[in-house]
Amino acid sequence: MLNKDKDLLTVKDLMLKLGKFPCLHTKEILKEALDQMTILKIGICCVVDGKKLVGIITDGDFRRRILDQQKPMSSFLVDDVIIHSIKNPITVNANEKIFNAVKIMEKKLIWDLPVVDNNKNLIGLLHLHPVVKKLLSI
């Protein structure tokens, strides 16, 4: 049973803000996504068209693409990031309770949930590590 403090936490309380996780526009190249994942130490990159979330790519997605498609790695790196992105990713609203968001992550076996507003504009990212750290401290 969760205690009262945990019950009050919402996604917006623990989400990473824009600029703290990898995010690229649709026409930027895949190499840039990998560079940002490395620099920011998060294995996901959100892909936006303007402010609207249109896809995500993870380091695992990239690894699976390399293994599935028989083409030189260098040719992947210059592709537009949207080509290899998962369109219509699972997302969460900023006002959702943390408990519900973690349940989604558990069910889908994912570490990250893009946070969007009602217009599907990207406003943050819920990353599992800070969530666990916070919940363990309460």
General description of the model:
The chain is α/β, with parallel strands linked by helices. The protein has one domain: CBS-domain (Roll), CATH 3.10.580.10. It has 7 helices and 8 strands. The strands form 2 sheets. Strands 1-8-7-6 form a 4-stranded mixed sheet. Strands 2-3-4-5 form a 4-stranded mixed sheet. The two termini are 13 Å apart. The model has no long low-confidence stretch (mean pLDDT 92).
**Fraction of residues in β-strands:** 15-25%
- Number of domain units: 1
Q: What is the CATH superfamily label?
A: CBS-domain
Counting DSSP E segments of at least 2 residues, the number of strands comes to: 8
Unreliable parts: none
Mean pLDDT: 92
Shape: elongated
Instruction: Please compute the radius of gyration using only Cα atoms.
Output: 16 Å
Summing up helix and strand content along with how strands pair, one would put the structural category as alpha/beta
CATH structural class: Alpha Beta
Looking at the structure, the CATH topology is CBS-domain
What is the makeup of the main sheet? 4 strands, mixed
Q: What is the N-to-C succession of helices and strands?
A: HHEEHEEHHEEHEEH
Question: Span from first to last CA?
Answer: 13 Å
So how many helices?
7
CATH architecture: Roll
Helix fraction, binned, reads: 40-55%
- Strand order in the sheet with the most strands: 1-8-7-6
